[in-house]
Specification:
The protein has 8 helices and 20 strands. With 400 residues, it is an alpha+beta fold. The mean pLDDT is 94.
Length: 400
Amino acid sequence: MTERLYYEHSYLTEFDAVVTDCVAQDGTYRVRLNRSAFYPTSGGQPFDTGVLGGASVTNVEVIDGDVWHTLSAPLRVGETVHGVIDWARRFDHMQQHAADHMIAGALHHLMRGVTIGLHISADISTIDVAMPDGRTHLTPDEIETIELYVNERVQRDVPVRCWFPDKEELKTLPLRKEPTVSEHVRVVAIGDDEMVACGGTHPASAGQLGLVKILNTAPARGLMRLSFVAGMRAFRDYRLCHAAAHQAAALCSTAVDQLPAALQTLQERLQAAEATVAKLRREGFDQTAHMWLAETVGSPRVIVKTVLADANVLKELASRLIAAQGVIALLRAEGDDSTPIVFARSQDLPVDMNRILREAAKRFGGRGGGKPDFVQGVATAQTLQEAEGLVREALYGNAL
């Protein structure tokens, strides 16, 4: 089996090893070594990348106890090669994994939550937690409590210890949960209140996490999914939020700590303005419909209009027109090609507006549909003219 150097030396970034196997596969090469510092995907922590024997490492996985490296070029069996780990990626994963342990420990200690799994993506990390009361969210106060619990230990720079205890020692250890393996159990302890079996890489002390920030909690397959960032990820998140908050405060001519109140005031003003606009729009629709009805003679009244409006405005106008009896409204938005149309009629008229649109569209194009008394779609100016002729034929000639 491959000797896994990362177990004892998580800070090891370069090493030499002997190639024991090399297999071509789908344009890449899978290489096995007698020893490796490359961490394989495991326990929610992604694999390490880097360079091995001059070839790029694009994947690392464990198969039957051996570590296999996917490379961009082949290596010769029996040769000694030099490996270099992408340290920035490795250390980021170390920070996220240690933060996972500390958050999971805090949830267990303070709320009896049981962490089921970890996932470290390129931007954020998540843990899925089974809460004793089945909850799938934490309140803002609870999130603050967990954050303070964790970051206080980060500030104290509590030690992180990783080791393989013998079976007798293992029996005496206060593990947060039972190990998933029975042999070669590796234990990670952070401070004096977090201890669990884990095969991942971790920093030597909690202070190297710098900062841990919980982003949110949300439901996920019946569990609570907690999203977080640590280390440089947390710093980048703080820098982004800091810049956005100060820019927003400047736009609102207020201080950052007064920004929520300022935004609430703006929201209230916006809602009041929107209500006023909606009222004016309704009044405008009513006035326009009344004017069109007043200027249209005959019975039934056929109102044909092309207006500067969108589909929603056409529907509003049509609805007001057909609220009166004996009205057919054929409305189209201004435009050169196919633009929104609404064909509608009062309930007391028997004309099928779906058939009107279909017949008119056969000759001049268009599409749409709806109920017999109200259809919408898109059509050309010629389609509107054809529809008017069909409506008048239906009303005064042979009904469609």
